Amino acid sequence: MNFIENTKEGFRSIKSNLLRTVLTALIISIGIMSLVGILTAIEGIKYSVSSTFSTLGANSFDIEKKWDGGGRGGRQSKVYPDITEFQAKQYKELMSEKARVSISTQVSGAASVKAGNIKTNPNMSVVGGDENFLVNENYDLEQGRPFSTLELESGAPVAIIGQEVAGKLFPKQNPEGKSMVLLGRRFKVIGRIKSEGGGLGGGGSNRQIIIPLETATQIPTPSPLTFQIKSAILNNTSLAYAMEEATGIMRKVRQDRLGQEDSFEITRSDSVEQTLNKITGYLKTGGFLVGFITLLGASIGLMNIMMVSVTERTREIGIRKALGATIHQIRQQFLIEAIVICVLGGIAGIILGVLMGNGIAILIGQGEFFVPWLWMLVGMIICVSVGLFSGYYPAYKASKLDPIESLRYE
Q1: Which of 41, 118, 299, 396 is the most exposed place for a label (fewest CB within 10 A)?
Q2: pTM for the full predicted model
Q3: Are strands 227-232 and 141-144 parallel, antiparallel or unpaired?
């Protein structure tokens, strides 16, 4: 009895015990479905997050004043000078050929805005930005227009507002062209930012009011303004190389002496994505362990069913041995049978797992249908391994049965 005959015999045995085979394969398919489903969902969510961050300027970096936590262990905190408007504009000029640079400044993080007899809570953020600010921050305008060159240069009292600001000041109205009072000055609304769903900070752009950078510098503030810089790489330049070049330019602008540490901080805009990738790595490990434990339970169930099968077919084994079947051939037959059941269950589990995982990923985030070829391959390898693990002992037991005793078994 060769390998092909053993395979055929395995399929005949599966067909003759169809209900038991279906139930056994179902145990395996549930285990594989949980493994592939969880990992597919994680991969799908990760793909959605990566796509989102690629559209949110993952090829950019921010420069701002360095902040020293200080005061710990008796150490005196170090005060770093603010980034001035002159320094920010110098950097922008020197970096203009290598990146699209935007300059902004936080005028107030807790401002109250008034329009007519309606007044908002003092939780609105006022930001001054230049001509590149909107595009570098990936803010889309739902209504209105961006600042004109004349408005930017002259410091005109115009503003672009977020959804929450517009909803509170001008409910069910188009805010474009309306007036509002902000920080003691009257501003004309020229645009509204498209809602971004609240953002990570609770308000995001929804509570933001953007005014021209020149206008921001004309508003009296309790302390001098510090400016933030964002550089977006537009060509094929390496982000790491551009950051090194930006560091050199900024040190020159800030006049940081040789050997002195940087008086500013450069942060990659994809740092949040890197953190999320690390988290999804932990989730993958957890998902794999959960799926593996489920499969371990399924393999024990399969081994139990194969043991019952050996007991039921004791007389059949005796006949085969009497006709000349060797120990190796009997063992091979039962192993093939266990592997075939696992593979059938595995195929069903993979299909269900991919559908379930993509369904979860679509419900949680947005993204295209994701096919995890790697995890499908891993699932099939695990199926064969489970078949070998679960089928070996029953196959070994069957091969060791005494043919005379087996023929007498009722």
Answers
A1: 118
A2: 0.56
A3: unpaired
Determine the Cα–Cα distance for residues 70 and 81; give it in Å rounded to an integer.
Answer: 15
Residue 144 has pLDDT above 80, yes or no: yes
Residue with tokens 């064969």: 384
| Cβ density class 242-280: b for 16+ within 10 Å, e for less | bbebbbebbbebbeeeeeeeebbebebbbeebeebeeeb
Residue 381, Ramachandran bin (φ over 0: left; ψ between -120 and 50: alpha; else beta): alpha
CA-to-CA dists, residue 57 to 162, 225, 269, angstroms: 20, 25, 7
Beta-strand (E) ranges in 225-344? 227-232, 264-268
- The helices-and-strands tally (H runs, E runs) of the chain is 13, 12
Dist. CA 176–CA 57, nearest whole Å: 28
* DSSP string across 344-362: HHHHHHHHHHHHHHHHHHH
Joined together, the tokens standing for residue 74 give 């008796």
Cα Rg of the chain, angstroms: 34
What one-letter code names the amino acid at 292? F
Spatial contact of 143 and 176, defined as CB atoms under 8 Å apart: yes
C-alpha 65/C-alpha 184 separation (Å) is 28
DSSP 175-233: -TT-EEEETTEEEEEEEEEPP-TT-TTSSGGGGEEEEEHHHHHHS--SS---EEEEEE-
Query: Tell me, what DSSP letter sits at residue 68?
Result: -
pLDDT score, position 161: 93
The Cα 406–Cα 391 span in angstroms is 20
The answer for 321, left when phi > 0, alpha when psi is -120 to 50, beta otherwise, is alpha
Nearest partner of 151 among 206, 192, 210, 95, judged by Cα:
210
Does residue 29 carry a pLDDT above 80? Answer: yes
Structure-block tokens of residue 263: 């008086």
With beta carbons less than 8 A apart as the criterion, state whether 61 and 268 touch. yes
